[in-house]
């Protein structure tokens, strides 16, 4: 099975460099999104998206149809009180500075712990893969968030790369190839490459 993992296009909050985990921003009207709309992505038999608007809109822009599956567990991390704010708005908050010193490892006030987010996302992605393999899907595209992609790929590769080594730009994509028997035995990918 070929699986294309795509980060959503530029959302309104991305233009302000804000933390937009659970913030349900639409895609921005900007030149970068116009450029991304011209980009060619591999075709997919099944289309999956996070439930947040920016992912569903990206899926529709790329594939000209609504997602077949909306995967709740693939939502971005909840940044709590840091949601929809950027560095300039948060830099004087001692809780934010402490969180940055921990490289985002702690819990954001009123938000989600990064370790719990990673566990949720990995669990949801593995459950989705099992469903797609069971249904004998040949190709699927998953439109998700930057954090979701980092969590999933740091898990699936089984390598020592850090979470942040898998950052994807808006519209960035990875192609994953999964051979069902190898997946059943090892829980690992056959191939992974950046598109």
Automatic annotation (TrEMBL):
GO cellular component: cytoplasm
CDD domains xrefs: HP_PGM_like
UniProt-listed SMART domains: PGAM (SM00855)
Gene Ontology MF terms in the entry: phosphatase activity
InterPro entries: His_Pase_superF_clade-1, His_PPase_superfam, PGM_Phosphatase
One Pfam family in the UniProt entry: His_Phos_1
Name assigned to this protein: Alpha-ribazole-5'-phosphate phosphatase
Organism in which the protein naturally occurs: Mediterraneibacter butyricigenes
